[in-house]
Specification:
197 residues, alpha+beta, Beta-Lactamase, 5-stranded antiparallel beta sheet, 6 helices, binds flavin mononucleotide
Length: 197
């Protein structure tokens, strides 16, 4: 059973045409949101609203894909959902689409919210993606997207696997290695979540 039985799920409004202009997040601010079991938004913090340009009324009850950017490969979200549905947390670089069509990059930690050991929803905590990582990540995503266009999800999954095995890293090791060079992301988020929870 959903933890948010009264949440009215709604269709997201049509997404804007993307504009190739980036918004860079403040170094010290977090974007936080929560969702029900299907990714429909149940809470958004002020910074989320400030950055994505949608207000509370526009966000609550709508799926997180309201800010989905067409440059994001589907495999990234498959990986995310496989992990969180299995009760694990996941870190991911995500390019998001604002209401005005501009984009912003985040490094997100998404994890299940549990009650009596049962998953009742999900949280996402996001910080500014470290700049040095974006050149590589956006190139990887571009190739995954291209693989998907030609050969579907199987092709992008294979490409991702071969990319990681060349680096001799798992997906987690890859992301963690990347963000550990940037800042103490884990500790930073943990401290914040203690206040939030
Ligand atoms: C807690 C949580 C946060 C999410 N945050 C984002 C996000 O910031 N951007 C995004 O594109 N998708 C996010 N998603 C995934 C979306 O729900 C969705 O699966 C994704 O945008 C792909 O949408 P599509 O299936 O319509 O292509 C999040 C999911 C959860 C559970």
């Amino acid at each position: 059973m959903d933890y948010y039985p009264n949440l009215k799920r709604r269709q997201a409004p049509p997404r804007p045409n993307p504009i190739n202009e980036e918004i860079i997040l403040n170094k010290k601010d977090f974007i936080v949101s929560r969702s029900d079991l299907k990714g429909y938004i149940t809470y958004a913090n002020d910074y989320f609203k400030e950055i994505c340009l949608y207000n509370t009324d526009e966000l609550i009850g709508v799926n997180h894909n309201i800010i989905r950017h067409p440059d994001m490969p589907r495999i990234a979200f498959k990986l995310l959902w496989d992990r969180i549905k299995a009760g694990e947390k996941v870190f991911a670089f995500v390019k998001n689409l604002r209401k005005d069509g501009r984009f912003y990059w985040v490094l997100a930690e998404v994890e299940p919210a549990k009650k009596n050991g049962k998953i009742v929803g999900y949280y996402s905590f996001r910080v500014r993606a470290p700049r040095f990582a974006l050149k590589e990540i956006s190139e990887v995503y571009k190739q995954l997207l291209e693989a998907e266009k030609n050969g579907g999800m199987k092709a992008s999954q294979d490409l991702l696997n071969s990319y990681l095995s060349k680096k001799k890293l798992t997906y987690d090791q890859y992301v963690q290695k990347t963000f550990k060079r940037g800042f103490g992301f884990g500790g930073f988020l943990r401290g914040f979540k203690n206040i939030f929870n």
